[in-house]
Design brief:
The protein is an alpha+beta fold and 224 residues long. The chain has five helices and eight strands, in the order ααααββαββββββ. The protein has an eight-stranded mixed beta barrel with strand order 1-2-3-4-7-8-6-5.
């Protein structure tokens, strides 16, 4: 009986230490178990995105692209065609922000399953090149915490979206703290912009931090 109680006590102590370590790690960095899951998912998404980049648009779309007279119209067509093919959880493109060390594959959709894989593009918003608002959400403490330091993105910081059909560079204009009900932030506007959203403050969903960035440059990559 004493041995059993001693063994149980040791198990409880170890479990307590592990829980404490998990809590401290989450507080100082990010939640380790869900982050490992997200890393595995990101590796898989990276492979799928690379395949999309290698294969390029279907032959039927290439023929249409070849007939379009200017770069802007070709990008718009490629973006809209790419979105029609997307399903929830599919890789969309790669999001980079050097100022905060962000480099993640973005998935289509913002449901729980999608955001466990990485940052998620709001399905009701455009893809880069189609015009209007591109909006992306991400976790700050769990599942890799891709947007943990999004509050450090200052005006002028560069954000890049590398899509299978083009490269898009945005510059941060401003950051706002808003209520979760402020859905106007993802509405379409008359210019090309990128919106990043995440819960705020850390470890709370009471508010949302929203980063607004404006398109600075776009470069097509299809046919290169």
């Amino acid at each position: 009986m004493r041995r059993a109680l001693r063994a149980l006590a040791n198990v409880l102590i170890v479990a307590g230490v592990l829980l404490l370590a998990d809590g401290v790690t989450t507080l100082l960095w990010k939640e380790p178990i869900s982050s490992l899951y997200a890393r595995v998912q990101q590796d898989r998404l990276d492979d799928r995105l690379a395949e999309l980049e290698r294969s390029g648009p279907p032959a039927s779309e290439r023929r249409v692209l070849a007939r379009l007279p200017d770069e802007r119209r070709r990008l718009r067509f490629a973006a809209r065609a790419a979105k029609r093919r997307l399903e929830e959880g599919d890789p969309v493109g790669r999001l980079r922000a050097g100022a905060i060390g962000l480099d993640e594959v973005v998935v289509h959709g913002t449901g729980g399953a999608e955001l466990r894989k990485g940052p998620g593009q709001y399905a009701e918003t455009s893809l880069p090149g189609a015009g209007g608002t591109v909006a992306i959400a991400g976790h700050r403490t769990t599942y890799g915490a891709p947007f943990r330091d999004v509050d450090d993105l200052e005006p002028g910081a560069r954000i890049e979206l590398a899509m299978p059909y083009g490269r898009f560079t945005y510059r941060v204009e401003r950051t706002r703290i808003l209520a979760p009900t402020a859905t106007w932030v993802i509405r379409r506007v008359a210019y090309d912009r990128l919106v990043l959203t995440a819960c705020h403050p850390l470890y709370s969903a009471a508010e949302r931090i929203v980063v607004f960035a404006r398109l600075e440059r776009s470069t097509p990559t299809f046919g290169s």
